[in-house]
Amino acid sequence: MLEVKNIFVRYDSGGSAPALQDVSFSLAKGERMALVGNNGAGKSTLFLTLVGILIPEQGSVIFDGLELRNGTASDIINTFRRRIGLVMQNPDDQLFMPTVYDDIAFGLRSQNMAEEEIEKRADTIMKALGIEALKDRLTHRLSGGEKRLAVLAGVLVMEPDLLLLDEPATFLDLPGRKRLIEILKCLSQSMIIATHDLDMADRFCSHTLRLDQGCIG
Ligand SMILES: Nc1ncnc2c1ncn2[C@@H]1O[C@H](COP(=O)(O)OP(=O)(O)OP(=O)(O)O)[C@@H](O)[C@H]1O
Ligand SMILES: [Mg+2]
Question: Which atom of ligand 1 is nearest to the CA of 12?
């Protein structure tokens, strides 16, 4: 379902080394892959590229027959963003509506779904994640773990085909991590999980991709 072909990604067009260099891999439908590598290896950069926030200078990303490369039209990029759900490493980069409910509802509202249906879906997801009590709370006043779960709810409610989770267990306490793993296990979506928790990678993923200074390690 996903094929990454020889991508090079650079943050500035100057002379600095690319953050990703000649990265290629593929992911089959339903597969769960761990993405590991030291700080600065390029894991978050890869995720930002897979959702079209960063565009590869060379190479391409193919998702269900759609190709994202340098020069791809914005409607194709929007399809990538709709069908691939990214939970960013830092929840503060992702939460932007005043309340938790508004944040979870945002994506569905932009698809013009009826509010009644949106609320039903949001309630179901919040219940599964154990955050029903946060529904009317202000997002900027949540704890780190609460923010993480609110972002996850906003991504899951969109029912993406592929989930990208960037360090999903950060900020979570032990019960929160256990609940997260149980929830992820029940999902049928393909997933890539960037993690420093090798135990989680082993227990949960069928294979591992290692990045080392922007290259496949
Ligand atoms: N916005 C940016 N502008 C310039 N360089 C950046 C930017 N974001 C990341 N980088 C650089 O790109 C490289 C890859 O960073 P990235 O955040 O993808 O690593 P990572 O594997 O996610 O690390 P971590 O485990 O710390 O989250 C690093 O050298 C980093 O300094
Ligand atoms: Mg990162």
Answer: 4
CA 131, 102, 113, 149 torsion: positive or negative? negative
C-alpha 36 – ligand 2 centre gap (Å) = 10
**Cα distance between residue 139 and residue 121, in whole Å:** 19
In 3D space, the residue among 213, 217, 160, 165 whose CA is nearest the CA of residue 192 turns out to be 165
| pLDDT per residue as tens digits for the range 139-191 | 999 999 999 999 999 999 999 999 999 999 888 888 888 888 888 888 889 99
pTM above 0.90, yes or no: yes
Count of residues making up the chain: 217
Angle at 167 between CA 164 and CA 173, to 5 degrees: 125
Q: Is the CB of 16 under 6 A from ligand 1?
A: no
Give the chain's end-to-end CA distance (angstroms, integer): 23
CA 75 to ligand 2 centroid distance, Å: 27
Residues with CB under 5 A from ligand 2 (ion): 43-44, 89
Cα 196 to ligand 2 centroid, rounded to whole Å = 10
**CATH of the domain spanning 2-216:** 3.40.50.300
Q: Whose CA is nearest to atom 29 of ligand 1?
A: 40
Alpha-carbon distance of 55 to 175, in angstroms, equals 37
